[in-house]
Amino acid sequence: MKKYVITSxxxxxxxxxxxxxxxxxxxxxxxxxxxxxxxESEKDKEKENNDSKPNESQQDQPxxxxxxxxxPENPQETDLPWLNETVTVSxxxxxxxQNLDDMLIVANKERNLPEDYVPxxxxxxxxxxxxxxxxxxxxxxxxxxxxxxxxxxxxEEQGLELLAQSGYRSYDTQVSIFAYNADQYGEEKANQTSAxxxxxxxxxxxxxxxxxxxxNYELVEEFGETKEGKWLAENAHKYGFIIRxxxxxxxxxxxxxxxxxxxxxxxxxxxEIHERGITLEEYLQKP
Length: 287
Ligand SMILES: [Zn+2]
What we know:
Layout: H1 2-12, H2 23-52, E1 87-89, E2 95-97, E3 122-123, E4 140-141, H3 142-157, E5 163-166, H4 171-185, H5 187-193, E6 207-211, H6 227-235, E7 241-245, H7 250-253, E8 258-264, H8 267-276, H9 280-283
Antiparallel strand pairs: 1-2, 3-4, 5-6, 6-8, 7-8
């Protein structure tokens, strides 16, 4: 928990230019984005209907269009930014992520973001935060910010009380957090509890830690047992988000279960990742 407090303290003393107010254009942009995804999901429904129909109509179709071939039905599945194709290895042996502006970008303990990478389209979503200061950690990349506004609205309509605790985090902030933890608890412990600079997903501007009054605005595992945490686990994908660090997937993600850490990937990918119950790493492992 300390590291989040520290983040606030660290950045709290810096005067930050106010983010542009995304409200009006956000709505506009979102409307078009949302219509697209509605169309998508209607298409999906149509597809489901077709799939559930008996073979009668399929007999008329050319053989290339069958499900039985074992070929992936969804052409997009063959065209994902696979993990092993989206890094280059630098002189010192570090894997550096290349697809920086991709919504499916993966940063983890084996994949480093460049020191100077700052997403170009960071904005502050119009959602409640448990603090008043205008800090950089309020920001997210535009598409994620628009989507999280819709997610929060949907949660509110269910009588849930979500708050956004921490979004974008710069490389330099992560340097400070890691150095502080290493100084306090030793490097080994620091490695377990905080990300090395360049390895935090928060630097992508696609991650948001959320919390609720029920857990005292903290980022703790019990959040997963609150009604807010349960709702997110069941519904976040409808708004393009996944729970990034799942229970019992530490070996794959490198992180313990974090029911509060949302990651934006877009509706289509989120839906599939959710339905398959897998991690982003597994989703992007080339078959
Ligand atoms: Zn997080």
